Amino acid sequence: MNTGDKDFYFIPSHLDDQAKILIWDMDEAMGILGGLSVGIITKQLIIFILLGFFLAYVIAKTKAARGRGFLPAICYWYLPHNTLFRFKRFPPSYIRDIVG
């Protein structure tokens, strides 16, 4: 093995990327899959799939404009603490003074 060979060292460039489903990031795909699920349940599939794609579009534009940490920050500050989107390593957002 020649150490001067370009293919010898592999440096990953996408280490912190989100998981993807097809071409969408996970949070965008959850909007589409959520619309698909609600559409199947209510038997109005086309309307809710279109709403799911619109939601994925809005999420993608928000992430592009504000950064990918913006949506988790909004969820942390404005959603109730005991929900599905609970941050396990962080204290609840209503606790302002942390002692210790």
What does this structure look like?
The chain is mainly alpha-helical and 100 residues long. The protein has 2 domains: 20-66; 69-100, no CATH class. Helices cover 48% and strands 4% of the residues. The protein has helices spanning 26-42, 45-66, 70-78, and strands at residues 20-21, 24-25. A two-stranded antiparallel ribbon has the order 1-2. Strand 1 (20-21) and strand 2 (24-25) form a beta hairpin. Helix 1 packs antiparallel against helix 2. The N and C termini lie far apart (53 Å).
Quick summary of this structure?
The protein is built from three helices and two strands, in the order ββααα. The protein is mainly α and 100 residues long.
Sequence-ordered SSE layout with sheet pairings:
Elements: E1 20-21, E2 24-25, H1 26-42, H2 45-66, H3 70-78
Helix pairs in contact: 1-2
The rounded Rg comes to: 20 Å
- Number of individual domains: 2
Strand content: under 5%
Please give the alpha-carbon distance between the first and last residues: 53 Å
Q: Report the total helices.
A: 3
Using DSSP, what is the number of strands?
Answer: 2
Query: What class would the helix/strand composition place it in?
Result: mainly alpha
- Main β sheet profile: 2 strands, antiparallel
- What is the average per-residue confidence, as pLDDT, rounded to a whole number? 80
List low-confidence stretches: none
- Estimate the global geometry from the Cα principal axes: flat
How helix-rich are the residues, as a percent range?
40-55%
Q: Strands of the biggest beta sheet: in what spatial order?
A: 1-2
Q: Which H/E pattern describes the elements?
A: EEHHH
